[in-house]
Amino acid sequence: MDKFRMIFQFLQSNQESFMNGICGIMALASAQMYAAFDFNCPCLPHYNLAYGLGILFVPPLVLFLLGFVMNNNVSMLAEEWKRPTGMRQKDPAVLRYMFCSMAQRAMIAPAVWISVTLLDGKCILCAFSTSVPVEKLGNLSYTGLSEKEMKRILARIPCKEIYDGQQLIPSEVAIRYLRCISQALGWCFVLLMTMLAFLVRSLRPCFTQAAFLKSKYWSHYIDIERKLFDETCTEHAKSFAKVCIQQFFEAMNKDMGMGHPHLPEKTPSEAGEEKEKLLGITDQGTMNKLLKSWHKCKPPLCLHQELFQNRNGWAGESQPLGPVSLPKREIIAYYSRV
Fold this sequence. Notes:
It contains 14 helices and no strands. The protein has helices at residues 2-13, 15-36, 48-69, 73-82, 92-106, 108-120, 122-127, 134-137, 147-154, 171-207, 209-256, 268-278, 284-296, 328-335. The relative contact order is 0.09.
């Protein structure tokens, strides 16, 4: 259990490794899902195409959306996109970088599904069985069939047990023809995805290195800032609840006249530590105001000016991006007073 806990803590601390692991698991899951999928072509002229293309494209769409749902940065991207500008400018390049990073990871599982499906060939065989060129592969002497009847016979090619058109075209010939096309498309798709991944991962930083580094840095900053704010709120909530419960028991002890008139007094260090954790926020209204202010008006990313003298001096000004953010205790203390 200790090893699993260490692995889980490492993945939590390294967001990129965690998301890469999730993408790998989803890719393997998509391949296993296709292997376990019971493919049943309807073998009907008007349904084969819809069924085959549906199996080819609908599951990848679901896996793509699941890739976004399982990414913890989706809510962070939406929050950064919709937040009021306040004292901090929004950088569209950072938002694009975050979205592209999530989209690249979310596309891995759909790409694996489409590749496996095309290489297997069942979907293409079902979808385009009525499009087999009978004049090239079939028996031209077999006449007397209407176009509707011919499509009905060709639609049964994927279903060997009910196919009755061996005199028109052998089923093995049609199956080999369609599977050859499907596998060719599958390898072309794999080559295309590999080339795109190479271009995105290797060539993009070479042409826009400065913009790439800036977008990557501030994307990581937004993620770290959100985590630190959540951790600070969690610590404050624990301290707030502890002090509130202690005050409740002390009040009940006095009201009920219990046999212990005085509870053990806290040492100055313990009292000072609890007061420090509260950061001056000692009531519900102040905390609600702080959270609302954090959402509406995050502090500017600049540490080289006096930030706590005049808040109105920031309003409407374009602030340059600084190297680091405000310390979280100073942020909490400031928003408790505004």
